[in-house]
Every structure is written in structure tokens, then in C-alpha cells.
UniProtKB/TrEMBL annotation:
It comes from the Eukaryota. The keyword Signal does not apply. Heme binds at residue 425. GO terms for biological process: fatty acid metabolic process. Keywords: Heme, Iron, Lyase, Metal-binding. This is Allene oxide synthase 3-like. Its cofactor is heme. Pfam families: p450 (PF00067). GO terms for molecular function: lyase activity; metal ion binding.
Length: 475
């Protein structure tokens, strides 16, 4: 790597206590998330700069970070030789371990910790063993989602995709891990709501409700100045924990045989199912449908043509071989993951002094400094992608396939693979598969659809306004 001109990292943290509070109000209320970063990039003429990240006082002891907002420097966050990932999943603070039975879940462990290799290695092997169940379980669930959309549109003229998608996602995860439907257990249909409350209580210091009738100072005091206690969801969480403990026996047996306590194994499994899997799908699927829906009928026609032709060529079945032949479907999924990554933040703490680069300069990082990457800006780097703020369905076709290495949604490059020794999402390939499968199922059944989009607490709310059935269905 050739050394670029050295530069001091611009920006500052302001006065103690008041600096973090000012940045917090800019982030949530005065500017908003995107303008917060873009204004500082313009001010400092740099994609690397210093600032405070929420929540700050009194939740986080130290809110100081170095922002990495370009495709080059962002990749430093994946380098385990330079970056420590201990207790930084949610950034500059960590929710109470009460939410996970008193244990630090795998996502909070650094790869250097022994339990990380045990847990992640097992999760990877578990997904490999269950690979033949992905498609049939998901197809079963999505047929119910379609029925729900059609019924709501018929009755109300509009259908809330998010609620139906959340229910499908929870059912898929529970069925995959427990080998039975959630509806056959005491959890029933309440799983998504329980997981939503459990996730919200952990992430409350990082969100804004956007309620116009609540003064900013009051919301800031309630959400960002204190952590919500576990007792608010204790009884609900126990129901979920008990359901997994009772129905995921074979998985817990195997993890226990690897040297972990059974309750620790179960709390980790609940975290994997709820925070990682369900929580990720809760953002991912609405994003995917949002971008495809708003792209319009021309893209819908092209997707339908490709999907139906390949499925017919493969004998009418939706198989992994068929999915792998759908190049436009692949490109659309990668583009959705690029333009609006389901996990927008990455953090890491420097293990040692080292030099980092963006496209123009070199910067010295000191041991112990916290690095922060905001993926929705890093994956819109104009020096890598043309028209980076535009959804371009064909972006990763042909020669564009080389750009897939700059898609970072999974805490790693898309061309990399998760291992027990890194922090890349263990379900990376499954997420891409399910996203492609969702598009395939949609365009086998429908020719086109129309949606309306609104901003939501965690992502976007997608409302279906119409669904046009396929003229010819080749399944």
C-alpha cells in the first residue's frame, strides 16, 4: 500500500459533557443523521474526522469516535489484527447483560475470546446442516404473507407489509431452529411483538421516536440519558427463552457438549434468533421491497421475465441452482444491500497505533481510540460507484460484478466469508439467499405492485396499494 500524504485527523469533541450533548442534539434533532455526517465531511474536507456519537452522557462514559465514511478506510473495521470488537456491538455503550441472562452474547465477544469461537463455529455448522430447509420453510411462510397482503388490500385498499413480514420472519427463524412452528407453542403469534420490545429496550438510547407532540428535550432525557431496565420485558422474554429451551433441545445439547452451560447456550440462541436474525430481517425485507417497488413496472417486468424463464428451464422448481442463474435478481439484492444496509453502524477499538488511509490522505490512529463507520455513506462512495445515491438495478451485472467487494452490509466485504475467527455475520449467505427468494416468489405470482413508503422507528414502513397477478404462472 503506497503511503499518501499524512494529515492530522480533523474535528474535535468539544467541551467535556457539553460537547457530547451538543453532538447528540445535532444528530437527532437539529440536523438529523445524514446531515450530521455530511455537514462534517464538508466542513473538514475529509471522510475521516472526530466527533461524538450518541448516546453520550449518562449512558456512555466515552462518546468520542473517529468516523470512517469512505469505502477505503471503512474496511479497517474488519481487520481483527488491528481492531478489537469486545462489547461494541451497539457502539459506545453496552446494554445490560440482564437482557441476555447475565451472559455476554456472541455478538459482543471479540474473536480472541474462547467462547466466540465455540459459539460462532457452532452457528456456522448449524446453518450448514440446515441448508436444505431454507427454501421450503421460507416458501411456506411467504405464501401466507401473500394471502395477508391480498386480504388487507381487498378489505382496506392498503396492506402493511412490515407487520406481515415480521410475522413471517419470526416464524421462519423459529421453525428453522426448533423444527416446529411457533403457532404450535405457547409463543403463538406473539413472538414478533415480544422481540420488538426486547430489542427496543436495548437500543432505546440510540433511537428517536420522532413524535412531534413530545418536546425534544423531554425525549432526549427519557431515551438518551438513561438505559431502560430489563424488568420492562422480563416476563415476555422468559416466555421466549422457555420456548427455545423446550423446543431447541438438540441444538442446546450440541452447544452444551462444546463446553458451555445450557442456559448460556439458550440465551445465545435467543439472541441469535431475535436480535441477529429476526432483527435483521425486520429491516432488510421492507428495504428490499421499498427499492424494488419504487423502481417501477419496467424493472418488475424484467425481473418477472428472468425469474419465470429460469424456473421454466429448471423444470418448474425453485431450487438453489435456479436462483444462481438469475443474474438480475442477484444484482438487485446487492444494490438494495448497498444503498440501504440493514445494519448501518460498525464500531471497533484500535488494538495498537497504526496508519489509516482514505482516498487522499493518511491518518494516525492511536491505541484505544474508537473507530466508527456509517455504512450508508461508505457504500455510496462516489469514487467507487457512479450515481451512488440512485438505485440502479443493473449495477452489479457484467463488469459491475467486480464492485460487489465494496458492499459491506454484513460486517465484512460481500466477497468474504464468515468464520469463527472473524466478526462477519454468520447468516450472510442465508440473508442474500432469502432476499433473492423473496423476489422470485413475488414475481412468480405477481406481474407488478405499487407501494407507499414512510419513515419508521427502525427503517421504513411499506404499504402495498396494489398487486397485479401474473397473467401466466409457471411454477
Amino acid at each position: 500500500m503506497s503511503m499518501l500524504p499524512a494529515r492530522e485527523i480533523p474535528g474535535d469533541y468539544g467541551r467535556p459533557f457539553f460537547g457530547p450533548i451538543k453532538d447528540r442534539f445535532d444528530y437527532y434533532y437539529n440536523q438529523g443523521e445524514l446531515e450530521f455526517f455530511e455537514s462534517r465531511m464538508q466542513k473538514h474536507k475529509s471522510t475521516i474526522f472526530r466527533c461524538n456519537m450518541p448516546p453520550g452522557p449518562f449512558v456512555a462514559q466515552n462518546s468520542r469516535v473517529i468516523c470512517l465514511l469512505d469505502s477505503v478506510s471503512f474496511q479497517t473495521l474488519f481487520d481483527n489484527s488491528k481492531i478489537e470488537k469486545k462489547n461494541i456491538l451497539d457502539g459506545t455503550f453496552m446494554p445490560s447483560t440482564d437482557f441476555t441472562g447475565g451472559y455476554r452474547a456472541c455478538a459482543f465477544l471479540d474473536p480472541s475470546e474462547s467462547n466466540h469461537a465455540i459459539l460462532k463455529g457452532y452457528f456456522l455448522s448449524l446453518l450448514a446442516k440446515k441448508h436444505d430447509k431454507f427454501i421450503p420453510i421460507f416458501r411456506q411462510g411467504i405464501s401466507g404473507l401473500f394471502s395477508g397482503l391480498e386480504d388487507e388490500i381487498s378489505a382496506k385498499g392498503s396492506a402493511n407489509f412490515n407487520d406481515l413480514s415480521d410475522a413471517m420472519s419470526f416464524d421462519f427463524v423459529f421453525h428453522l431452529l426448533c423444527d416446529r412452528k411457533a403457532s404450535e407453542t405457547k409463543v403463538g403469534s406473539n413472538g414478533p411483538k415480544v422481540f420488538d420490545k426486547w430489542i427496543f429496550c436495548q437500543l432505546a438510547p440510540l433511537v428517536s421516536l420522532g413524535l412531534k407532540f413530545v418536546p425534544n428535550c423531554l425525549e432526549d432525557l427519557v431515551l438518551h440519558s438513561m438505559s431502560l431496565p430489563f424488568f420492562l420485558v422480563k416476563s415476555d422474554y422468559k416466555k421466549l427463552y422457555d420456548a427455545f429451551y423446550k423446543n431447541a433441545g438438540p441444538i442446546l445439547d450440541e452447544i452444551e457438549n462444546l463446553g458451555l452451560k445450557r442456559d448460556e447456550a439458550c440465551h445465545n440462541l435467543v439472541f441469535l434468533a431475535g436480535f441477529n436474525a429476526y432483527g435483521g430481517m425486520k429491516r432488510l425485507f421492507p428495504y428490499l421491497i421499498k427499492w424494488v417497488g419504487t423502481a417501477g413496472e419496467d424493472l418488475h417486468r424484467r425481473l418477472a421475465d428472468e425469474i419465470r424463464a429460469v424456473v421454466k428451464e429448471e423444470g418448474g422448481g425453485v431450487t438453489l441452482a435456479a436462483l444462481n442463474k438469475m443474474s438480475l435478481v442477484k444484482s438487485v439484492v446487492y444494490e438494495a444491500l448497498r444503498i440501504e444496509p440493514p445494519v448501518p453502524y460498525q464500531y471497533g477499538k484500535a488494538k495498537e497505533d497504526f496508519v489509516i488511509q482514505n482516498h487522499e490522505s493518511s491518518f494516525l490512529i492511536k491505541k484505544g481510540e474508537m473507530l466508527f463507520g456509517y455504512q450508508p455513506i461508505a457504500t455510496k462512495d462516489s469514487k467507487v460507484f457512479e450515481n451512488p445515491n440512485k438505485f440502479i438495478a443493473d449495477r452489479f451485472l457484467g463488469e459491475g460484478e467486480k464492485l460487489i467487494k465494496y458492499v459491506y452490509w454484513s460486517n465484512g466485504r460481500e466477497i468474504d466469508e464468515p468464520t469463527a475467527e472473524n466478526k462477519q455475520c454468520p447468516g450472510k449467505d442465508l440473508v442474500v439467499l432469502l432476499s433473492r427468494l423473496m423476489l422470485v416468489e413475488f414475481f412468480l405470482k405477481y406481474d407488478t405492485f405499487k407501494v407507499e413508503i414512510e419513515k419508521a422507528l427502525l427503517g421504513s414502513t411499506v404499504a402495498f396499494k396494489s398487486l397485479t397477478n401474473a397473467v401466466h404462472e409457471d411454477k
